[in-house]
User: Which sequence fits this backbone?
């Protein structure tokens, strides 16, 4: 079957299997910035934005994404670079595998919650795991980013 996505601002058509997940569709079509960490909806490495909200692309059937706006880091390069700079300044960049998913979630957080509390930030980020366990530095980087970008 065919689906249509607005991918990073461009209308695209994809041929998919009925039981295919968005992560597979994207990676099979060379969108390799979307990472496959666990393939079991637990790590957040595969996060993309669907109509501006973070979703785990390994748990969204591609057919369900038909007609939706999908954003990966490729569509938000300037914003992701800014977020990455804050991570770098706090020493929160380690192996980097979680960075793309985490950056998209931070971007969505900034647009969804105004003046979030520490608990709200932690709750929002809970689906993005870091295998290097750099959570403290990441939290500081996210707080600094949100403060500067108010
Ligand atoms: Fe989707 Fe881990 S690859 S949550």
Assistant:
């Amino acid at each position: 079957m065919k689906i249509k996505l607005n991918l990073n601002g461009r209308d695209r058509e994809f041929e998919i299997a009925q039981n295919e997940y968005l992560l597979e569709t994207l990676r099979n079509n060379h969108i390799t910035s979307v990472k496959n960490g666990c393939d079991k909806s637990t790590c957040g490495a595969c996060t993309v934005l669907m109509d501006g909200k973070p979703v785990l692309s390994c748990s969204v059937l591609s057919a369900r994404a038909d007609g939706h706006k999908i954003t990966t880091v490729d569509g938000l390069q300037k914003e992701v670079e800014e977020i990455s700079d804050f991570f770098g300044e706090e020493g929160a960049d380690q192996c980097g595998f979680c960075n793309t998913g985490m950056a998209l979630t931070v971007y969505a957080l900034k647009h969804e919650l105004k003046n979030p509390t520490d608990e709200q930030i932690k709750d929002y980020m809970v689906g993005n795991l870091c295998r290097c366990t750099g959570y403290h530095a990441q939290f500081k980087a996210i707080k600094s980013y949100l403060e500067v970008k108010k």
